[in-house]
Write a structure and sequence with these properties.
single chain, 254 residues, alpha/beta
């Protein structure tokens, strides 16, 4: 007998931290969910990046409700990317967690990828509903992004960031906001189970930052360090390893 497939994902709309409508997709399992998971994508990515979609589908198949959503100014969400800040992403995560609660899913796990992982660590201390945390290729310092930022001529403080061959405009507020966040200090204060997943050949966020995150984090914690897979976990074996590791982690900690 074949295993029943999870229901078709549900599209959600909710108000983000800047008042814009954010777009989300809620994956639910067959029958009663054994837990829920909120997912935060990387800096210039979206909820539809394969890293997010593969994990969300796999989590639903494993019995979890999983919400992936677009931060303000990205994907299908409203707002202007140029006005984004790390603080704004943290606030968007808080709003999204509230949506899970309103849907009756209560305490949850939190997954953050890359800069979304840093935002997840920063948001966790504001979210008492988060019982377990996972970061994938997350920087230990949000100032890591500075080396990708070019200040535009003209003296108005605007900047550009180039990633994956695409150029994105940023207002001065993004750069000014970076110094407001101490990711390692927040990791040390977590007092909740924390899995740091960092591939050794990560070409975007160097492996040493994963080591720093693990060293700073409070117990209980785990460090999973596959040799290959890249920052986006593109190869199928890397994606499958990430899913299996994360499902096992949440089965133990949620």
């Amino acid at each position: 007998m074949s295993t029943p497939r999870p229901p078709k994902p549900e599209t959600l709309r909710f108000v983000g931290s800047r008042g814009h409508e954010l777009a989300g997709v809620l994956h639910t399992p067959v029958g009663q969910a054994k837990g829920s998971v909120l997912m935060a994508h990387c800096f210039t990515c979206s909820k539809d990046l394969h890293t997010m979609t593969r994990l969300a589908k796999g989590l639903a198949e494993a019995g979890y409700a999983a919400l992936r959503f677009d931060f303000t100014g990205l994907g299908e969400s409203g707002g202007d990317f140029s006005q984004k800040t790390v603080s704004g992403n943290v606030s968007d995560l808080v709003r999204a967690a509230t949506i899970l609660i309103e849907r009756g899913y209560g305490p949850c796990g939190l997954i953050g990828h890359s800069l979304g992982g840093a935002a997840a660590v920063l948001a966790a201390h504001k979210l008492k509903t988060v019982r377990s945390l996972v970061t994938i290729g997350a920087p230990s310092n949000v100032n890591h992004i500075r080396h990708l930022i070019t200040t535009c001529p003209g003296g108005d403080g605007t900047s550009e960031v180039s990633l994956g061959g695409r150029v994105f405009a940023l207002d001065r507020g993004f750069v000014d906001d970076l110094d407001n966040h101490d990711v390692l200090a927040r990791a040390a204060e977590l007092d909740r189970p924390y899995l740091i997943f960092h591939v050794q050949d990560d070409e975007v966020v160097e492996f040493a930052q994963g080591e720093q995150m693990y060293a700073a984090a409070s117990e209980p914690k785990k460090f999973h360090t596959p040799e290959t897979g890249g920052h986006l976990l593109g190869p199928r074996p890397a994606a499958e390893d990430a899913l299996a590791t994360i499902v096992e982690w949440f089965d133990e900690t949620l």
